């Protein structure tokens, strides 16, 4: 399933909090094309010539746009997916309710 930027923003607005007539800051940043990765020394992982893992913390939408632009630098990407959205197209149980929650 491939979504363009506007489709993703529309879907995101339908599944979260929405403030009418107020553009999200992240939308402006993505549209500007000025997104970039910023290394935070206090959160840097110990890397060696063999192990070049990176931890990227931030808004999933912005991070995925950056990863797409720099896709040749990454072999594997693991993201924390959305959950309990009611979507039927996920490959995992998207309707999980813990026994203590019921």
User: Low-confidence stretches at least 5 residues in length (pLDDT < 50)?
Assistant: none
Distance between the termini: 33 Å
Mean pLDDT: 72
Instruction: Describe the global form.
Output: globular
Total beta strand runs = 0
Q: State the major sheet.
A: none
Oligomer: single chain
Strand percentage lies at under 5%
String of helices and strands: HHH
Rg result = 17 Å
Question: How would the blueprint of this fold be written?
Answer:
Blueprint lengths: L4 H10 L10 H8 L27 H10 L33
Structure description:
The chain is mainly alpha-helical and 102 residues long. The chain has a domain at 35-83. 27% of the residues lie in helices and 0% in strands. The protein has helices at 5-14, 25-32, 60-69. 1% of the residues are buried. The model has no long low-confidence stretch (mean pLDDT 72).
Which descriptors apply to this entry?
102 residues; mainly alpha; 27% helix
Q: Briefly, what is this?
A:
The chain has 102 residues and is an all-alpha fold.
């Amino acid at each position: 399933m491939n979504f363009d930027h506007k489709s993703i923003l529309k879907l995101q607005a339908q599944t979260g909090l929405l403030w009418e007539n107020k553009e999200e800051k992240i939308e402006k940043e993505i549209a500007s094309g000025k997104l970039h990765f910023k290394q935070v020394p206090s959160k840097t992982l110990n890397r060696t010539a063999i192990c070049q893992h990176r931890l990227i913390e931030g808004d999933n939408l912005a991070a995925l746009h950056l990863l797409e632009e720099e896709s040749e630098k990454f072999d594997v990407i693991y993201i924390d997916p959305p959950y309990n959205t009611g979507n039927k197209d996920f490959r995992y149980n998207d309707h999980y309710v813990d026994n203590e929650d019921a």
